[in-house]
Amino acid sequence: MGRMSDPVRPRPGRPVDHSARAARRQQIMEGARSCFHQHGFHAAGTAEIAAAAKVSVANLYQYFASKDELIIAIAEEDLRSDLALIAMIKSAGSIEDAMELAVDAITQEARDPSVSRLRLEVSTEATRNPGVAHVVLRAEQMQRAALVDWIRQSQARGEISADLDPETSAFALLCLIDGAFARVATGVLAPESAARELMRAIRAMFRI
Amino acid sequence: MGRMSDPVRPRPGRPVDHSARAARRQQIMEGARSCFHQHGFHAAGTAEIAAAAKVSVANLYQYFASKDELIIAIAEEDLRSDLALIAMIKSAGSIEDAMELAVDAITQEARDPSVSRLRLEVSTEATRNPGVAHVVLRAEQMQRAALVDWIRQSQARGEISADLDPETSAFALLCLIDGAFARVATGVLAPESAARELMRAIRAMFRI
User: Fold this and answer.
1) Is the pLDDT of residue A123 over 80?
2) Which of A29, A57, A186, B34 could form a disulfide with A50 if both were Cys (CB 3.0 to 4.6 A apart)?
3) Domain of B36: which CATH number?
Protein backbone atom coordinates (compact mmCIF):
# COMPACT_ATOMS: atom_id res chain seq x y z
CA MET A 1 0.00 0.00 0.00
CA GLY A 2 1.33 3.45 -0.88
CA ARG A 3 0.94 6.66 1.03
CA MET A 4 -2.13 7.82 -0.85
CA SER A 5 -4.21 4.85 0.20
CA ASP A 6 -3.38 5.38 3.86
CA PRO A 7 -3.64 9.09 4.54
CA VAL A 8 -3.38 10.79 7.93
CA ARG A 9 -5.26 13.80 6.57
CA PRO A 10 -7.91 12.32 4.30
CA ARG A 11 -8.77 14.25 1.16
CA PRO A 12 -12.17 15.93 1.37
CA GLY A 13 -15.01 13.53 0.77
CA ARG A 14 -12.88 10.47 1.46
CA PRO A 15 -13.76 8.63 4.67
CA VAL A 16 -10.94 7.52 6.99
CA ASP A 17 -10.75 3.75 7.28
CA HIS A 18 -10.35 3.58 11.05
CA SER A 19 -9.87 -0.16 11.29
CA ALA A 20 -7.19 -0.15 8.58
CA ARG A 21 -5.44 2.68 10.40
CA ALA A 22 -5.57 0.81 13.69
CA ALA A 23 -4.18 -2.34 12.04
CA ARG A 24 -1.34 -0.40 10.40
CA ARG A 25 -0.54 1.35 13.69
CA GLN A 26 -0.39 -2.03 15.43
CA GLN A 27 1.87 -3.41 12.69
CA ILE A 28 4.30 -0.52 13.23
CA MET A 29 4.24 -1.01 16.99
CA GLU A 30 5.03 -4.70 16.59
CA GLY A 31 7.97 -3.83 14.33
CA ALA A 32 9.14 -1.32 16.92
CA ARG A 33 8.84 -3.87 19.75
CA SER A 34 10.90 -6.34 17.77
CA CYS A 35 13.64 -3.76 17.02
CA PHE A 36 13.66 -2.27 20.51
CA HIS A 37 13.81 -5.73 22.03
CA GLN A 38 16.81 -6.65 19.88
CA HIS A 39 18.78 -3.42 20.06
CA GLY A 40 17.29 -1.24 22.82
CA PHE A 41 15.48 2.07 22.44
CA HIS A 42 18.61 4.06 21.68
CA ALA A 43 20.37 1.81 19.21
CA ALA A 44 17.22 1.09 17.12
CA GLY A 45 16.72 3.61 14.29
CA THR A 46 13.54 4.66 12.51
CA ALA A 47 14.70 3.05 9.26
CA GLU A 48 15.18 -0.32 11.01
CA ILE A 49 11.80 -0.05 12.72
CA ALA A 50 10.07 0.74 9.42
CA ALA A 51 11.79 -2.25 7.78
CA ALA A 52 10.79 -4.58 10.64
CA ALA A 53 7.20 -3.32 10.40
CA LYS A 54 7.28 -3.65 6.58
CA VAL A 55 6.23 -0.02 6.02
CA SER A 56 8.07 2.94 4.52
CA VAL A 57 9.78 5.44 6.82
CA ALA A 58 7.37 8.09 5.49
CA ASN A 59 4.44 5.84 6.40
CA LEU A 60 5.84 5.29 9.90
CA TYR A 61 6.01 9.06 10.42
CA GLN A 62 2.33 9.35 9.46
CA TYR A 63 1.54 7.32 12.58
CA PHE A 64 4.31 8.28 14.99
CA ALA A 65 6.03 11.66 14.78
CA SER A 66 9.11 10.39 16.66
CA LYS A 67 10.74 7.39 18.31
CA ASP A 68 9.59 8.90 21.62
CA GLU A 69 5.96 8.61 20.49
CA LEU A 70 6.55 4.93 19.71
CA ILE A 71 8.07 4.33 23.14
CA ILE A 72 5.11 6.09 24.77
CA ALA A 73 2.68 4.01 22.68
CA ILE A 74 4.42 0.82 23.87
CA ALA A 75 4.22 1.97 27.50
CA GLU A 76 0.50 2.70 26.99
CA GLU A 77 -0.03 -0.73 25.42
CA ASP A 78 1.57 -2.35 28.50
CA LEU A 79 -0.71 -0.25 30.71
CA ARG A 80 -3.83 -1.38 28.81
CA SER A 81 -2.68 -4.99 29.09
CA ASP A 82 -2.16 -4.60 32.86
CA LEU A 83 -5.58 -3.01 33.35
CA ALA A 84 -7.21 -5.79 31.30
CA LEU A 85 -5.51 -8.33 33.56
CA ILE A 86 -6.73 -6.54 36.69
CA ALA A 87 -10.27 -6.48 35.25
CA MET A 88 -9.96 -10.24 34.65
CA ILE A 89 -8.77 -10.74 38.24
CA LYS A 90 -11.72 -8.72 39.54
CA SER A 91 -14.22 -10.83 37.63
CA ALA A 92 -12.71 -14.17 38.74
CA GLY A 93 -14.95 -16.35 40.88
CA SER A 94 -12.59 -16.85 43.81
CA ILE A 95 -9.26 -15.50 44.98
CA GLU A 96 -7.68 -18.84 44.03
CA ASP A 97 -8.97 -18.48 40.46
CA ALA A 98 -7.83 -14.85 40.40
CA MET A 99 -4.31 -15.76 41.51
CA GLU A 100 -4.00 -18.57 39.02
CA LEU A 101 -5.21 -16.33 36.18
CA ALA A 102 -2.86 -13.54 37.20
CA VAL A 103 0.23 -15.67 37.66
CA ASP A 104 -0.39 -17.51 34.35
CA ALA A 105 -0.83 -14.25 32.44
CA ILE A 106 2.21 -12.67 34.08
CA THR A 107 4.39 -15.73 33.40
CA GLN A 108 3.33 -15.80 29.77
CA GLU A 109 4.15 -12.10 29.34
CA ALA A 110 7.44 -12.42 31.22
CA ARG A 111 8.47 -15.29 28.93
CA ASP A 112 8.24 -12.96 25.91
CA PRO A 113 11.36 -10.76 25.96
CA SER A 114 9.70 -8.24 23.63
CA VAL A 115 7.46 -7.57 26.64
CA SER A 116 9.63 -8.24 29.72
CA ARG A 117 12.84 -6.65 28.43
CA LEU A 118 10.91 -3.66 27.10
CA ARG A 119 9.21 -3.11 30.44
CA LEU A 120 12.63 -2.63 32.04
CA GLU A 121 13.61 -0.44 29.11
CA VAL A 122 10.46 1.70 29.59
CA SER A 123 11.30 2.18 33.30
CA THR A 124 14.86 3.19 32.48
CA GLU A 125 13.61 5.57 29.78
CA ALA A 126 11.16 7.10 32.28
CA THR A 127 14.11 8.27 34.41
CA ARG A 128 15.08 10.78 31.72
CA ASN A 129 12.12 11.17 29.35
CA PRO A 130 9.21 13.20 30.83
CA GLY A 131 6.68 11.86 28.29
CA VAL A 132 7.45 8.25 29.24
CA ALA A 133 7.60 9.17 32.95
CA HIS A 134 4.08 10.57 32.63
CA VAL A 135 2.72 7.26 31.26
CA VAL A 136 4.58 5.27 33.94
CA LEU A 137 3.10 7.48 36.69
CA ARG A 138 -0.41 7.18 35.23
CA ALA A 139 0.03 3.40 34.94
CA GLU A 140 1.05 3.15 38.58
CA GLN A 141 -1.88 5.26 39.76
CA MET A 142 -4.47 3.37 37.68
CA GLN A 143 -3.11 -0.07 38.57
CA ARG A 144 -2.87 0.80 42.20
CA ALA A 145 -6.40 2.20 42.40
CA ALA A 146 -7.76 -0.91 40.65
CA LEU A 147 -5.84 -3.25 42.98
CA VAL A 148 -6.86 -1.37 46.13
CA ASP A 149 -10.46 -1.69 44.98
CA TRP A 150 -10.05 -5.45 44.34
CA ILE A 151 -8.36 -6.00 47.73
CA ARG A 152 -11.17 -4.11 49.52
CA GLN A 153 -13.79 -6.25 47.74
CA SER A 154 -11.90 -9.44 48.60
CA GLN A 155 -11.70 -8.31 52.22
CA ALA A 156 -15.44 -7.56 52.26
CA ARG A 157 -16.06 -11.13 51.01
CA GLY A 158 -13.73 -12.44 53.75
CA GLU A 159 -11.19 -13.85 51.27
CA ILE A 160 -8.31 -11.65 52.42
CA SER A 161 -7.59 -10.78 56.04
CA ALA A 162 -9.22 -7.49 57.06
CA ASP A 163 -6.02 -6.69 58.98
CA LEU A 164 -4.11 -5.94 55.78
CA ASP A 165 -3.91 -2.35 54.65
CA PRO A 166 -5.19 -2.27 51.02
CA GLU A 167 -2.81 0.55 49.97
CA THR A 168 0.25 -1.22 51.34
CA SER A 169 -0.84 -4.56 49.90
CA ALA A 170 -1.38 -3.01 46.45
CA PHE A 171 2.07 -1.41 46.57
CA ALA A 172 3.64 -4.72 47.65
CA LEU A 173 1.74 -6.63 44.94
CA LEU A 174 2.98 -4.26 42.22
CA CYS A 175 6.57 -4.53 43.53
CA LEU A 176 6.36 -8.35 43.61
CA ILE A 177 5.09 -8.50 40.04
CA ASP A 178 7.74 -6.02 38.82
CA GLY A 179 10.40 -7.99 40.67
CA ALA A 180 9.34 -11.32 39.18
CA PHE A 181 9.23 -9.74 35.69
CA ALA A 182 12.66 -8.15 36.04
CA ARG A 183 14.17 -11.43 37.26
CA VAL A 184 12.89 -13.24 34.18
CA ALA A 185 14.04 -10.44 31.84
CA THR A 186 17.57 -10.44 33.29
CA GLY A 187 17.83 -14.24 33.34
CA VAL A 188 18.03 -14.46 37.15
CA LEU A 189 14.94 -16.73 37.24
CA ALA A 190 13.35 -19.02 34.67
CA PRO A 191 9.73 -18.03 33.96
CA GLU A 192 8.43 -21.12 35.81
CA SER A 193 10.54 -20.41 38.92
CA ALA A 194 9.47 -16.77 38.86
CA ALA A 195 5.82 -17.88 38.69
CA ARG A 196 6.30 -20.26 41.62
CA GLU A 197 8.09 -17.66 43.75
CA LEU A 198 5.52 -15.00 42.87
CA MET A 199 2.62 -17.30 43.76
CA ARG A 200 4.23 -18.16 47.13
CA ALA A 201 5.03 -14.53 47.91
CA ILE A 202 1.47 -13.40 47.10
CA ARG A 203 0.04 -16.21 49.26
CA ALA A 204 2.33 -15.22 52.13
CA MET A 205 1.38 -11.58 51.75
CA PHE A 206 -2.36 -12.26 51.65
CA ARG A 207 -2.00 -15.01 54.27
CA ILE A 208 -3.89 -17.54 52.19
CA MET B 1 49.59 12.81 36.37
CA GLY B 2 50.80 11.37 33.06
CA ARG B 3 50.75 7.78 31.91
CA MET B 4 54.28 6.99 33.13
CA SER B 5 53.46 7.78 36.73
CA ASP B 6 50.48 5.45 36.73
CA PRO B 7 51.47 2.27 34.93
CA VAL B 8 49.36 -0.86 34.55
CA ARG B 9 52.50 -2.90 33.87
CA PRO B 10 55.10 -1.45 36.22
CA ARG B 11 58.67 -1.27 34.97
CA PRO B 12 60.91 -3.88 36.60
CA GLY B 13 62.03 -2.88 40.05
CA ARG B 14 59.27 -0.29 40.44
CA PRO B 15 56.60 -1.17 43.02
CA VAL B 16 52.92 -0.72 42.11
CA ASP B 17 51.23 1.87 44.29
CA HIS B 18 48.07 -0.09 45.05
CA SER B 19 46.27 2.62 46.96
CA ALA B 20 46.94 5.22 44.23
CA ARG B 21 45.65 2.75 41.65
CA ALA B 22 42.52 2.09 43.69
CA ALA B 23 41.90 5.83 44.09
CA ARG B 24 42.34 6.45 40.36
CA ARG B 25 40.04 3.55 39.54
CA GLN B 26 37.40 5.01 41.87
CA GLN B 27 37.79 8.44 40.28
CA ILE B 28 37.13 6.93 36.83
CA MET B 29 34.11 5.03 38.12
CA GLU B 30 32.66 8.21 39.60
CA GLY B 31 33.14 10.00 36.29
CA ALA B 32 31.45 7.08 34.54
CA ARG B 33 28.51 7.12 36.99
CA SER B 34 28.03 10.83 36.41
CA CYS B 35 28.09 10.42 32.59
CA PHE B 36 25.94 7.27 32.55
CA HIS B 37 23.44 8.90 34.88
CA GLN B 38 23.15 11.94 32.59
CA HIS B 39 23.14 10.22 29.22
CA GLY B 40 22.61 6.50 29.74
CA PHE B 41 25.07 3.68 29.06
CA HIS B 42 24.71 3.83 25.31
CA ALA B 43 24.85 7.57 24.68
CA ALA B 44 27.85 8.19 26.98
CA GLY B 45 31.20 7.88 25.16
CA THR B 46 34.64 7.02 26.53
CA ALA B 47 35.93 10.54 25.79
CA GLU B 48 33.11 12.09 27.86
CA ILE B 49 33.70 9.63 30.71
CA ALA B 50 37.43 10.39 30.74
CA ALA B 51 36.67 14.14 30.79
CA ALA B 52 34.18 13.76 33.65
CA ALA B 53 36.72 11.68 35.59
CA LYS B 54 39.49 14.22 34.78
CA VAL B 55 41.79 11.56 33.28
CA SER B 56 43.04 11.00 29.73
CA VAL B 57 41.27 8.48 27.52
CA ALA B 58 44.53 6.47 27.45
CA ASN B 59 44.58 6.47 31.25
CA LEU B 60 40.96 5.31 31.38
CA TYR B 61 41.84 2.36 29.14
CA GLN B 62 44.62 1.37 31.54
CA TYR B 63 41.93 0.68 34.12
CA PHE B 64 38.97 -0.41 32.03
CA ALA B 65 39.43 -2.09 28.66
CA SER B 66 35.90 -1.17 27.52
CA LYS B 67 32.69 0.60 28.49
CA ASP B 68 31.31 -2.88 29.30
CA GLU B 69 34.00 -3.31 31.95
CA LEU B 70 32.96 -0.01 33.50
CA ILE B 71 29.30 -1.05 33.56
CA ILE B 72 30.27 -4.36 35.17
CA ALA B 73 32.42 -2.51 37.74
CA ILE B 74 29.42 -0.30 38.60
CA ALA B 75 27.17 -3.35 39.00
CA GLU B 76 29.81 -4.91 41.27
CA GLU B 77 30.06 -1.73 43.32
CA ASP B 78 26.26 -1.81 43.83
CA LEU B 79 26.54 -5.46 44.89
CA ARG B 80 29.25 -4.64 47.47
CA SER B 81 27.12 -1.80 48.81
CA ASP B 82 24.11 -4.14 49.12
CA LEU B 83 26.13 -6.81 50.91
CA ALA B 84 27.56 -4.20 53.29
CA LEU B 85 24.00 -3.09 54.07
CA ILE B 86 22.91 -6.70 54.73
CA ALA B 87 25.93 -7.15 57.03
CA MET B 88 24.86 -3.99 58.90
CA ILE B 89 21.29 -5.35 59.18
CA LYS B 90 22.61 -8.62 60.56
CA SER B 91 24.64 -6.88 63.24
CA ALA B 92 21.77 -4.59 64.33
CA GLY B 93 20.53 -5.11 67.90
CA SER B 94 16.85 -5.65 67.12
CA ILE B 95 14.68 -6.11 64.07
CA GLU B 96 13.34 -2.58 64.63
CA ASP B 97 16.89 -1.17 64.47
CA ALA B 98 17.64 -3.33 61.44
CA MET B 99 14.59 -2.05 59.58
CA GLU B 100 15.31 1.55 60.40
CA LEU B 101 18.93 1.19 59.26
CA ALA B 102 17.92 -0.57 56.07
CA VAL B 103 15.14 1.81 55.08
CA ASP B 104 17.33 4.87 55.82
CA ALA B 105 20.21 3.52 53.74
CA ILE B 106 17.91 2.51 50.88
CA THR B 107 16.15 5.90 50.89
CA GLN B 108 19.47 7.72 50.82
CA GLU B 109 20.70 5.62 47.89
CA ALA B 110 17.39 5.93 46.04
CA ARG B 111 17.54 9.73 46.38
CA ASP B 112 20.82 9.76 44.40
CA PRO B 113 19.92 9.31 40.71
CA SER B 114 23.50 8.27 39.91
CA VAL B 115 22.63 5.18 41.98
CA SER B 116 18.88 4.62 41.49
CA ARG B 117 18.73 5.42 37.78
CA LEU B 118 21.87 3.36 37.14
CA ARG B 119 20.42 0.37 38.94
CA LEU B 120 17.55 0.31 36.45
CA GLU B 121 20.05 0.84 33.65
CA VAL B 122 22.14 -2.12 34.91
CA SER B 123 19.04 -4.38 34.92
CA THR B 124 18.13 -3.31 31.39
CA GLU B 125 21.72 -3.87 30.25
CA ALA B 126 21.69 -7.34 31.84
CA THR B 127 18.91 -8.37 29.43
CA ARG B 128 21.37 -8.22 26.52
CA ASN B 129 24.89 -8.18 27.95
CA PRO B 130 26.05 -11.56 29.34
CA GLY B 131 28.86 -10.00 31.43
CA VAL B 132 26.41 -7.71 33.23
CA ALA B 133 23.83 -10.53 33.49
CA HIS B 134 26.46 -12.63 35.27
CA VAL B 135 27.02 -9.92 37.94
CA VAL B 136 23.26 -9.42 38.37
CA LEU B 137 22.77 -13.17 38.88
CA ARG B 138 25.64 -13.37 41.38
CA ALA B 139 24.24 -10.31 43.20
CA GLU B 140 20.83 -11.94 43.49
CA GLN B 141 22.27 -15.22 44.77
CA MET B 142 24.55 -13.57 47.35
CA GLN B 143 21.89 -11.13 48.58
CA ARG B 144 19.31 -13.83 48.80
CA ALA B 145 21.56 -16.24 50.70
CA ALA B 146 22.49 -13.45 53.15
CA LEU B 147 18.84 -12.47 53.67
CA VAL B 148 17.66 -16.07 54.11
CA ASP B 149 20.34 -16.45 56.77
CA TRP B 150 19.24 -13.23 58.53
CA ILE B 151 15.56 -14.24 58.42
CA ARG B 152 16.39 -17.67 59.90
CA GLN B 153 18.36 -16.04 62.71
CA SER B 154 15.53 -13.58 63.39
CA GLN B 155 13.07 -16.47 63.46
CA ALA B 156 15.31 -18.39 65.89
CA ARG B 157 15.30 -15.32 68.17
CA GLY B 158 11.50 -15.15 67.88
CA GLU B 159 11.51 -11.73 66.15
CA ILE B 160 9.90 -12.96 62.93
CA SER B 161 7.07 -15.47 62.77
CA ALA B 162 8.37 -19.03 62.31
CA ASP B 163 5.46 -19.59 59.87
CA LEU B 164 7.16 -17.52 57.16
CA ASP B 165 9.22 -19.35 54.58
CA PRO B 166 12.71 -17.72 54.61
CA GLU B 167 13.26 -18.24 50.85
CA THR B 168 9.92 -16.68 49.89
CA SER B 169 10.40 -13.83 52.34
CA ALA B 170 13.90 -13.09 50.99
CA PHE B 171 12.52 -13.06 47.42
CA ALA B 172 9.69 -10.75 48.47
CA LEU B 173 12.06 -8.46 50.37
CA LEU B 174 14.34 -8.09 47.34
CA CYS B 175 11.32 -7.37 45.09
CA LEU B 176 9.99 -4.76 47.54
CA ILE B 177 13.35 -2.99 47.70
CA ASP B 178 13.77 -3.07 43.90
CA GLY B 179 10.22 -1.80 43.50
CA ALA B 180 10.71 1.10 45.92
CA PHE B 181 14.00 2.00 44.19
CA ALA B 182 12.48 1.89 40.71
CA ARG B 183 9.55 4.07 41.82
CA VAL B 184 11.93 6.74 43.10
CA ALA B 185 14.11 6.53 39.97
CA THR B 186 11.12 6.94 37.64
CA GLY B 187 9.57 9.75 39.71
CA VAL B 188 6.47 7.70 40.64
CA LEU B 189 7.22 8.16 44.36
CA ALA B 190 9.20 10.76 46.29
CA PRO B 191 12.04 9.16 48.30
CA GLU B 192 10.21 9.79 51.59
CA SER B 193 6.95 8.21 50.34
CA ALA B 194 8.88 5.24 48.98
CA ALA B 195 10.57 4.81 52.39
CA ARG B 196 7.21 4.95 54.16
CA GLU B 197 5.57 2.46 51.79
CA LEU B 198 8.58 0.15 51.94
CA MET B 199 8.61 0.21 55.75
CA ARG B 200 4.87 -0.58 55.89
CA ALA B 201 5.16 -3.36 53.31
CA ILE B 202 8.09 -4.99 55.16
CA ARG B 203 6.20 -4.78 58.47
CA ALA B 204 3.13 -6.37 56.85
CA MET B 205 5.27 -9.09 55.31
CA PHE B 206 7.10 -9.90 58.54
CA ARG B 207 3.89 -9.36 60.57
CA ILE B 208 5.57 -6.98 63.00
Assistant:
1) yes
2) A57
3) 1.10.10
Q: What confidence score (pLDDT) does residue B8 get?
A: 52
Q: How many domains does chain B have?
A: 2
Q: Do B172 and A172 touch (CB under 8 A)?
A: yes
In a domain, A127, yes or no: yes
**What's the CA gap between A11 and A15, in Å, rounded?**
8
Question: Counting beta carbons within 10 angstroms of the beta carbon of residue B165, is it exposed (0 to 12), middle (13 to 18) or buried (19 or more)?
Answer: middle
In whole angstroms, what is the distance from residue A170 CA to residue A143 CA?
9
Please report whether residue A1 resides in a domain: no
Average pLDDT score over residue span B77-95 = 91
CA B62 to chain centre: 24
What pLDDT, on a 0 to 100 scale, did the predictor assign at position B3? Answer: 41
Asked if B133 and A187 come within 8 Å (Cβ–Cβ), the reply is yes
Q: What is the CATH number of the domain that holds B118?
A: 1.10.357.10
A172: closest CA of chain B, how far (Å):
6
> ipTM value of the model?
0.88
* Shortest Cα distance, chain A CAs vs residue B113, angstroms: 9
Q: Give the residue with greater pLDDT, A37 vs B12.
A: A37
Cβ of residue B205 closer than 8 Å to a chain A Cβ: yes
Which residue of A35, A141, A188 to mutate against B (max B Cβ within 10 Å)? Answer: A188
Q: Residue B10 domain-assigned? A: no
Residue span of the structural domain in which B50 resides: 18-63
